[in-house]
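Researcher: Please predict.
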Amino acid sequence: MKAQLKVTRVSPNGNGLKDLEHTSAGEGRVAPTTRVLFNGLGGVGGRIVTHLKALDLLDQQAACYLWKDSDRGDRFETTLPGLQRVTLTDTELCRFGVEDARSNLQNYPQLARRYRRLLRGIPVAWTYGRGAGQWRPIGMLDYEMDIASIQTALARVLDAFYPTPLGKKMTMERVLAERQAETQREQPLLVVQISSAVGGLGSSTFIHDAYLLRHLLEKRGATNVTFWGIVIGPRAFQGRGPNILYNYAALMRELDWVYRQGFHHTFISGESVAAARPPFDLLFQADLTEWPEGEDPAGKLSDTATDAFLRQIALGVHLLTSPAMRDRLQSLLVNIHDEAASDSGEAPLSFLGSFNAALAAVNLSALQEAIALAKAEETARKVIERCGA
């Protein structure tokens, strides 16, 4: 059996894919077996997508990468054996947001009706160019107000998979280009959207971004698209801020809603999205099951341990997106609702999967009770401390 080596590259302008595949004897050139778009949201999504880019340098996939974040910080980089550094290019980054989102609401009555109540109680300082800072309303408001930047970035990356022929004259070159574009629209595309489940930017835009991307793909005539969602946490991020569990609970409730009721939303750009289907064909949750050795279980993960954990997530995603594993997962998840039916004959909502393809249903009542108990415990502790007991 001849060994094969395939290197996939995205051109610097993000508008084309270059796939090189050779046998060990240097023979042949084979089309990629899978086309994948890795779509990262927030800081965690950006780190994992960067690690994925490093892992995908030698593989059997034509992959594109996009990281969307409202922060203005440095981009991440990772390393390969031999100390080769890998980072996302400018065309693979989308920085968005406005400096004074709260004041800009007066220019958008549509947004004011949605967000003024949600912004009450959030310190004004958090709304000035500091990213979402674990405040979901700020992350979503940044996304809504700068939706033009979001759509420009999405259009740029989709051009790599579904190019639009330019020109009006029906020249032979245009006819051939249109035929090629039609063929590409029929080729399978896997979209893998990655975010933390607890951050202000990622958890707040996770659903909207998936539906918007589905909408833009439909407008381009894409007919063979699969969406995977991957949310990280909450346990891995404990101790990193006051809103971790609240953001997680909010995202779970929103996912529960759209999986049952669908999605209806109009962005200020004029794009109106109405979908009855869930945002993801398969949704994974990845979290720590065992606390790393040497780390304090009562505290937060160190930066070193967190990066190691995110690298493991990237490796898991990398392996899952291989064609053989993807097909296996799809076969395992057939008719899951019938198998999980309760005594009353009703199937509970089960839309989360772990990386070993086991299913996990979200018990929202238990989650809310746990959060309420944790809040009550915190309040009681503070009262006891103030009383000197």
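Model: DSSP finds twelve helices and 14 strands in the chain.
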